[in-house]
Amino acid sequence: MLILLAAVFTLHIIGIILLLVATIDNAWWATNNMVTDVWARWIQQDGVWNYTDLPTGSHYPQNYLQAVQASSVLACIFSILGIFVFVAQLFTLNKGQRFTISGIFQLLACLCIMIAASIYTDRFHIDEKFGWYGHSFILAWISFALTFISSIIYFVLRKKTA
Fold this sequence. Notes:
Elements (H helix, E strand, L loop, with lengths): L1 H23 L4 E2 L3 E3 L4 E5 L2 E5 L9 H31 L7 H24 L8 E2 L1 H26 L2
Antiparallel strand pairs: 1-2, 1-5, 2-3, 3-4
């Protein structure tokens, strides 16, 4: 059981790291001379990367952008809270009740990052012919899968320890 708990803890930590990188790093959309994330845009001019604000207008709606930003940050917060609750539950709750709250936090993190990545997919860069989704966007989807698997494992562990 100790090895299983260590594996779940490791999976949770990997999920947190991927969520943080996906939220903070600057590569949700990329072209040969431009990289965009949910916070800013970096444009390469004369071999130097310059920080610029995100564009405004109908092709970059601010309300959807704020929803992506908020959902990404909430996913990080829920997942970090989930790991602290996991450790606290190991020492305080009775068997059968241990991993429910951790599983709920991970499920909330999973839903938040799924909402962020889905909105970004549906609302941004629709008409752009050149460019591709960057590694942060891909990490957001991978962290969605990891947090979902982690939440399922927490719920299954709750049943096993009962």
